[in-house]
Amino acid sequence: MNGKKTFTIADVLERPVFRRAKLAAGEQGTNRRVGWVHVLEITNVSPFVSRHDLILTTGLWLTRKGEERAEYMEQLIRSEAAGLCVELGTSIHEIPLEILELAEQHHFPVIVFEQPVRFVEITQDIHSLLINRHHELLKDLERFSRQLQQETLRSTDMNALLRVLHDYTARQIIYMSSIDTNRFVPSVQPESADHIADFYANEVASSMTADREGHLLFQLNDSTAVLFQPVVCFGQVFSAVGLVLHGETPTEEMSLLLDYTAKAAATLVLRTQFLEDRLLRNQNELIQDVLNRQLPSEEQAQTRMGLRLLSKGQYLFWAGVIEVEHEDKDASQVRKESINQDVLVLLRSLLKKETLHNLLMMKGSQCYILCAKEELTLRSAAQMRKVLAHTVQYIQNYAAGQLDKVRIHAGFGKVRHRMTETDRSFEEAYQVIEVARSVPAMQDRLFYDSIGIYQLLKAAPSIPFLQEFVQDHLGGLIAHDREHHMQLLDTLDAYFQCHGSKRDTAGMLYIHRQTLYNRLDKINEIVEGSLADPDKRRCLEMALLAHRMLQAEN
């Protein structure tokens, strides 16, 4: 494909059938691409003209009034046709000056045959040429695709793919990545590399979305543009392949080459992430030591994590657990392991993209996460929390959309300033997941400090202790509801939620006010105390929360 070009108006004028033709207007548009040839004599041409069509006509429309003639030309210009060929001597003998001026204004080529010509000869000649070129293009793309496949099977060298693209296009190739080093084939000066990296980060990256199809063209400066194609893995853009153009218009061939290269690059990115996961087994050992409280010192722990030791300031450490729930009980163990590994690779890539230092360990269907970030400002913890929440949300959306019968649960403990204390954060993360799964009102909670009073309930020494506490304070109401179905527990719960407002409670339960009074009297009688007593109310509220949690867990 190297050295070939798109078929243009300039190429048309070189064809033997155009030896007797002359270019009457639009000389600056001779680089327009020609995709097909049509013969059109009607005046309403818009529905029948596609982009890059070359229109053949005897000029019958030029016999119309001035406004109608101009409208015909404007339709062709708006439709982005390649140009217009007019045969003189059959319907007209000359083209009006205002039509030529309009074409010249829009750089729209108008080719004139001053003697009659057989349109069928033109269409046969150009169509056969276009079809042959398209056939050659497909063969070139097939060869290009095979070469990319060979490179991806041979190694994980991204430069090898970029060199293949460079060989086929003879143009500067760039590769911008949020999880890897940027690459340039051939290499460029450091100043140019920095300039392109800044340009990509500020002007391009935000437009590189996974749901956007096709390439994007951006002007680097007045004379240079870059055609970008995103590299998409797991529905996320991690990098982009770019083709530098100097005063050129992007062609379909360029777009296809970029698309093939981006797909091959995505394969390498995924494979690299999987290989990286194998090479990081020491992370498992380090997290295991954290869980077992076998870290001798904070300094050694940070060194093993790869953190530089700070002379000033401190790190923020956030530990959490992401649990993959396989709802399909018939799924094979191989499929489950494959899904678990996909989630791990996606999580690693997302955290790497956010430049968040992390350790990950997959154990069964649970992924342990330990993230570290230098506390530079008072908002560092809030920013870190936002990144973690966004990451979990993306993985949950990915599972819901791409993985059948798979749910993602996640929880994070409290942020801490010492890595040697994060074993407690992992315990808190477990508690967040348990509360979110067992209490409907808490199902969207991710962080330990957001589960409120359930921190105390989960800290209870044992489940029998909680069961005994519930029995002591609510046992009579539970037994009465079981026998008489008066919904006293639901009534008490609604009464507390409405802050003791009887009117609001009756409205919430959709019952008559007198019915509520009767139930409250019965509740006061069974619990042997007044609901207005603050100590009694607090005990009952805690017992209700514990009861709901234990019910859900059972």
Specify the CATH homologous superfamily of the largest domain.
Reverse transcriptase/Diguanylate cyclase domain
Query: What's the tally of helices?
Result: 18
Structural class comes to alpha+beta
Strand arrangement within the widest β-sheet reads 1-5-4-3-2
Could you give the distance between the termini? 67 Å
Mean pLDDT: 85
Description:
With 554 residues, the chain is of the alpha+beta class. It has 4 domains: 9-119, Udp-n-acetylmuramoylalanyl-d-glutamate--2,6- Diaminopimelate Ligase, Chain: A, domain 1; 155-273, 2-Layer Sandwich (Beta-Lactamase); 308-454, Alpha-Beta Plaits (2-Layer Sandwich), CATH 3.30.70.270; 460-551, Arc Repressor Mutant, subunit A, CATH 1.10.10.2840. Helices cover 50% and strands 16% of the residues. The protein contains 18 helices and 14 strands. It has helices at residues 9-13, 66-78, 97-105, 119-154, 158-169, 190-204, 252-279, 281-291, 298-305, 333-353, 380-402, 422-438, 454-458, 463-484, 488-497, 502-509, 513-527, 534-553; strands spanning 21-25, 36-39, 53-57, 83-87, 110-113, 173-177, 183-185, 216-219, 224-233, 236-246, 315-326, 357-363, 366-374, 406-412. The strands form 3 sheets. It has a 5-stranded mixed sheet with strand order 1-5-4-3-2. The two termini are 67 Å apart.
Write the topology of this structure.
Layout: H1 9-13, E1 21-25, E2 36-39, E3 53-57, H2 66-78, E4 83-87, H3 97-105, E5 110-113, H4 119-154, H5 158-169, E6 173-177, E7 183-185, H6 190-204, E8 216-219, E9 224-233, E10 236-246, H7 252-279, H8 281-291, H9 298-305, E11 315-326, H10 333-353, E12 357-363, E13 366-374, H11 380-402, E14 406-412, H12 422-438, H13 454-458, H14 463-484, H15 488-497, H16 502-509, H17 513-527, H18 534-553
Parallel strand pairs: 2-3, 3-4, 4-5
Antiparallel strand pairs: 1-5, 6-7, 6-10, 8-9, 9-10, 11-13, 11-14, 12-13
Helix pairs in contact: 2-3, 4-5, 4-7, 5-7, 7-10, 10-11, 12-18, 14-18, 15-16, 16-17
Protein name: Polyketide synthase regulator
InterPro entries: CdaR-like_regulators, PucR_C-HTH_dom, PucR_C-HTH_sf, PucR_dom
Pfam family, one: HTH_30
